[in-house]
Amino acid sequence: MSNQMLKMIAPLAVLVIFWFIPAPEGLSANAWHFLAVFFAVVVGLILEPVPAALVGFTGISFVALIGLVGNPKESITWALSGFSNSVIWLIFAAFMFARGYEKTGLGKRVSLIMVKFMGKSSLGLGYAVAFSDLILAPFMPSNTARSGGSVYPVAINIPHIFDSYPDKDPRKLGAYISWVAIATTCVTSSMFLTALAPNLLAVDLIGKSTGHVISWGEWAGVMLPLMIPLFLLTPWLTYVIYPPTQKKSPEAPAWASEELKKLGPVTFKEYLMASLATIALVLWIFGKEFGVDSTTVAISIVAIMVLANVITWDDLLSNKAAFNVLIWFSTLVAMAAGLKKVGILDWIGANTQTMLSGMNSTTLIIALVILFFLLHYFFASVTAHVTALIPVFMTIAATLLPPEQIIPFTVILAGSLGVMGIITPYGTGPSPIWYGAGYISQARWWALGAIFGALYLAVIVVGAFIFI
C-alpha cells in the first residue's frame, strides 16, 4: 500500500473508530460524533493526504450535512461562521502585503542591504540574515513567505560565493546560514502578533474563550522583552555551537553591492510600499485609541495598494496562498467553535477540574506551557497545533486559574507558537525550505532543534514566571 493511500485512510480510520466508541458519561452522542470528526480533521491536517484547506472544508461540510450542530439553518450558519471572522480577513490582507514586498522588490532590497553592511564576517552574515527577517516580520504573517520567499533567495546564494554547497563543504558557510535563518524566523514569529498567521488564529480562539482579544501592544509588551535578547543571542550561539569553517566573508558585501546595482535605485513603488506598511503598523499598535479596527486598517491598505498599482487586482485574485489560508483558517475557526457549541469544552473543563484541582496555579501554568510546547513534536503544522490544543488549554485555564492570571497566561501560551517551530524539520512553514536546501543533515537538525528548543522553551517558562 502506498504512503499516499495510508495518509488517505488514516483520518477515515480515526473517524470510524471514534464514531462507534460509546460516548463517555456526560457527553451526548452528537457531541462525541463531532469530536470524532474533529480528531479526523486534526489527523488530516497533520498527514495532509489532500491540501489542508480541503481537509477543514470537508470537515465542516460533513458536520453540517449530518446536522451534528443543529437544524439545517443552524448548521450552515455555523459552517460559514469562520468566513465572517475579522481576524481571518486580517491574515488574508497581510498576505497581500507580502505580495507587495515581493513585487516591488523591497523585500529583496532589504536583505541585500543587510548583507552589504553587515556581511564582512560569517557572524556578520548571520546577523544580516537575522535582521532581514526581523525588518519584514511585523508586516508578514506568513513566515514561509517571509523567510522562504524573501530571505531565502538572497541568503542561499551567499554560500556559493565561497564554494560551499550541500555536497561540498556544507559546514564552510551554508549550514551556518541555514540554521541561523530558520532559528531567527522562529524567534521573530513569536516576537510580533502579526509575524505568524497562527498567532492571529490563536488570539481569535482565545478571545472566544475569555471575551478578551489580545491587542498588538499587549502581545509586544510581553513577548518583545523575551524575544529581543533571544533574537540577538541566536546567530552568536549558532556560531559557537555549530560554527562555520569560513570565518571571514569580504566577498559577500561586494556581491550584495552588485546585486543592488542590478536592482537599480529605489523606486516610487518601493517607497510607497514601505510607507503603507509603516502606516499599517502604527495603526495596528495605536488604532484602538482612534477607534480603528486592525482588520479595517489592513483591508484599507490593500485597497490603496491596488488603486496605486503597487499590486494589481489580478495579483490579488491569483494569490492562491492567501485564498488557501482564507478557506483553511475559516473552516478551522468553525471547527474550534463547534467544540464549544456541542458541549465538549464544558465537559473537558469539568473533568479537568477534578483531575488537576490539587495543583497550585504556578505549577499548573508551568506544566501547561511545557506540555503545549512539547506536544508540537506531533504536529507538522502550527495551525493544526492551534486548532487542536488552544480550545482545550483555554478551557483548563478558565477552569483552574485565578481570573487575573488568565490573560497573561494566554499571551505566553500563544507567544510560544513561533519558537516551538524550531524543534523539528517539519515544525513550521519555512523548515522544509531550509532543511530542503540540503546543508544540514536530518540527524544534525534534530540535535540542534533539541538544543535550541530547550533554550527557547526555557525563555518562555521564565516569561511565565515574570509576567504571570
UniProtKB/TrEMBL annotation:
Keyword Cytoplasm: no
Protein localization: Membrane
Family the entry assigns: Belongs to the SLC13A/DASS transporter (TC 2.A.47) family. DIT1 subfamily.
Transmembrane feature ranges: 5-23, 29-47, 76-101, 176-201, 222-242, 271-287, 294-313, 325-344, 356-378, 384-401, 406-426, 446-467
Membrane topology of this protein: Multi-pass membrane protein
Protein name: Anion permease
GO molecular function, one term: transmembrane transporter activity
GO cellular component: membrane
One Pfam family it belongs to: Na_sulph_symp
UniProt KW keywords: Membrane, Transmembrane, Transmembrane helix
Major place of residence: membrane
Keyword Transmembrane included in the entry's annotation: yes
